[in-house]
Amino acid sequence: MKDSAHYSILHDSKQLYAAKYLTYLPTEEQLRNEIERQKQIFLEQEKD
Question: Which parts of the chain register pLDDT below 50?
């Protein structure tokens, strides 16, 4: 798995921001699994 990380410090800010980008496309199965996983997380949060 290849990925890259980018960092940014905004002007006059003490905070550091980071983002991670995947440099490949996931398979259809991986996408389906991730969507289902996110749906479950959302449903669990809605219960609270």
Answer: none
